[in-house]
Amino acid sequence: MRIGFVGLGIMGSRMAARLLGQGHELAVWNRTAGKAAPLAARGARAAPSPAEAARDAEVLFSMLSTPEAVRESAVARPDTFLPSLRPGRIWADCTTVDPASCRAMAREAAARGVRFVEAPVAGSLLPAERGELVFLAGGEAADVEEVRPLLLAMGKKVVHGGPVGAGSAMKLAVNILLGGAMTSFAEALRLGSALGVPRATLFEALLGVPAAAPFLAGKRRKIEEGEYGAEFPLRWLHKDLHLAATAAYAEGIALPVTNAMKELLALAAGAGLGEQDISAVCAFLQRGKLP
Ligand SMILES: NC(=O)c1ccc[n+]([C@@H]2O[C@H](COP(=O)([O-])OP(=O)(O)OC[C@H]3O[C@@H](n4cnc5c(N)ncnc54)[C@H](OP(=O)(O)O)[C@@H]3O)[C@@H](O)[C@H]2O)c1
């Protein structure tokens, strides 16, 4: 199949590589052009603009950072991809955005006769590399079915939650769990160390209990070695919790714990850890002690 792929960051580069590995014909674009080089070396066509990545595509995937980045690359600038996708083709956006932004993009697509599927993902760098992501999809059932084989080339499961907006809703809910697990683990480590328990003993105690999320074990080496190269950049978790908070505001509901986590991540990002992995929140909380 002819596929366009826009956004080759930590996740997009690995997802596009999976599609290429399945024998699809790929045209790829990234704002920082150099990131397309490894895929081009494996046979993808490096397009000079989002519009060129979309021109011949039967399905166009986007994996960008924020709702604003999606809008900019899709419609808001010259050479964006939506106007050059042919009517009847599918745009599948995998970016983590909020349901309202997603529905706005679906309307932009519909105005051009393009079918829109949202397919944000649960899973990080390694699941993306191994094709083990879980896609949380929203859109018309027939459209989701049409892209399902492509999603399953990049992941192990597709959950179709309903119309456009349902995928983002599930994704933001998942990231409340993720943020809660990461930030409370950072606090648990902080308290245990302050009370004198050796770090290695603490890891043994905390990671073995049912209350610990399984992904935390995969963060152990980073935290122990203080090596916080990003698998999931902290600033994007901050963004996701902000999107959850604004979606909650629009619905007139309260998310007190999510908002507290969001502010903790804002402080960590403000201290220069935004581009580091989410586990860097552990390093942030280790700082400072009252006299
Ligand atoms: N990493 C994870 O574990 C993970 C897991 C699940 C979901 N997600 C979500 O997946 C999305 C991508 O995450 P990631 O970790 O791959 O992030 P990333 O490595 O920071 O990649 C972000 C991508 O967006 C592009 N971009 C940013 N602003 C842009 C703009 N204004 N115009 C055009 N392109 C723009 C970047 O281009 P440049 O290369 O030029 O900066 C890059 O290709 C985010 O929504 C994130 O929340 C991430």
Supply the key terms.
3-stranded mixed sheet, single chain, 6-stranded parallel sheet, 291 residues
Outline of the structure:
With 291 residues, the protein is of the alpha/beta class. It is built from 13 helices and 9 strands. The radius of gyration is 20 Å and the shape is globular.
Q: On the 0-100 scale, what is the average pLDDT? A: 97
Summed up, the helix count is 13
Secondary-structure element pattern, one letter each: EHEHEHEHEHEEHEHEHHHHHH
Strand order of the largest sheet: 3-2-1-4-5-6
- Shape call: globular
By DSSP, the count of extended strands is 9
Structural class: alpha/beta
Strand content: 5-15%
Low-confidence segments: none
Give Rg in angstroms. Answer: 20 Å
